[in-house]
Amino acid sequence: MSRNERLPRARAFSSWTTRRWLRVGVAVSLTVLALLGSTGAWVLERTTSLSDDLVNVQSPALSTSLRLESALLNQETGIRGYGLTGTPEFLAPYRSGLADQATSTASLADLLHGDAAGLKDLKIVQDAAEAWQERIARPIAASPAGTPSRLTAERAAEAKEAFDAVRGALSTQQERLREDRAQAVEDLSATMRLRNWVFAAIALVIAVLAALVVEALRRGITTPLEQLGAAARTIAGGDFDHPINPTGPADLRRLSGEIDVMRRRLVRELAFTEESRLRLDAQAADLQRSNAELEQFAYVASHDLQEPLRKVSSFTQLLQRRYGGQLDARADQYIDYAVDGANRMQILINDLLDFSRVGRVHSELKSVELGSVLKQTLSALSVSIEESQAVITHDPLPSLVADPTQMGMLWQNLIGNAVKFRRPDQTPRIHVSATQEDALWRFAVTDNGIGIAPEYADKVFVIFQRLHTKDAYNGSGIGLAMCKKIVEFHGGTIAVDPEYQGGARITFTLACEPPPAAGPSTLPEVTRADTGQAT
């Protein structure tokens, strides 16, 4: 076969799938085993048939022929003795031989049924015996007893010739039966040898088929799957550039190709992800630097605004005290506006300064009894609590690792807001609850005040965002933004509970220990003494 003829056949085989290879292999194996099984069954049936023929036909036929010969010899002996002596006792072997002859003849006829040559030999023996009996045996047996039969002497030569014919017929029959028996033995031996070869061939073919199946499975399935698994483990170990070489049947090669396509797509995705991560890291660094600069700017701006604002506030207060009532009403009103604006600006700058210091100064983390901090806060807010007659209760509060100053600012803003935004016709009732959730504590400050509409649940935590005018409720709009910054600095979250309807409920979580990123800042601290107002 030329190379050009082999190539299309190789390509045709290369397109076979594992299922097709298995089907063809199983079909070929079953066909070979069926042929061998059929041959083995035929050999077994042939061996059984020959064995049965030898045991049940050939050997019994030869034995029966010998018994027939013995019966005829007994007849001849008895007739000869009776003919020579006339003694009746000699007729007993003759009569017994007749019975045995009849039995042996019937048995031979039954055994040689279907054997034309054997039946022909039996007929010749019967005819020869019948001729001897008719001419010699019966006439002599019918002679009177007591005296020798004259027929014995008269027909002696004829008797010898007739019985020699019987002997010749028996010899011919027995010779043929011996030949048939020997042939049967030879056929049986040959068939048994063939049977042994056939079963040896069956065992050999089964062993070869098993070896072929094992080798085919190893080359076609096991080895390709092991190579694919090794490549997959290499890729899973981090070597995403490791290629997958398709081997084995068509479906396994297709699977390997699909996995390699997935690998290349993952390589592209990882490259894109790494590039995106680098960009995000750069953006995060820029954002962090920008936030730090903004916080530094707010800190410095708040600090640097203190001196000129202190002068403005001091001189406007001096104008108010010295010239109050000496000018007209409009001048007094303008002075009041200036003093009020300076005071509010002072409060706003102080609040902004406090906001910028969260997480930057006073960040000495230690174990804090939140119950004690809350008690100190309530003492600081005692004036507004007494004026509003607020009722404040709380659950047992835990001890956490936190900044005690910031915890005080947190409670002060939450409790202060709950007291500030009360209903004018109801006594303020405020409750602080605490429950542990795995590694976090969840706190809730619940009041019966005017509440927060759901659409403003996020807005209230944005700095300088106010839901009411300064005439209705004083303040700078920094309180809840500062609470959010404090809570997030300690590894928690804060939100408005939108499902609570009887007022407002602020929930927040705090970790038992703040995240490692939380720590003291190195910015200089500006105290409220630096921002004091002139008296």
Structural commentary:
With 535 residues, the chain is an alpha+beta fold. The chain contains 13 helices and 7 strands. The protein has helices spanning 3-14, 18-85, 91-111, 116-142, 150-154, 156-236, 250-304, 306-323, 329-357, 370-380, 382-388, 404-420, 479-489; strands at residues 366-369, 391-394, 399-402, 429-437, 440-447, 494-496, 504-511. The strands form 2 sheets. It has a 5-stranded mixed β-sheet with strand order 2-4-5-7-6. A two-stranded antiparallel sheet has the order 1-3. It is rod-shaped and about 205 Å long. It starts with a helix and ends in a 24-residue tail after the last strand.
Order of helices and strands: HHHHHHHHHEHHEEHEEHEE
**Overall shape:** rod-shaped
Helices and strands: which structural class? alpha+beta
Strand order of the largest sheet: 2-4-5-7-6
Share of helix, binned: 55-70%
Quick rundown:
With 535 residues, the chain is an alpha+beta fold.
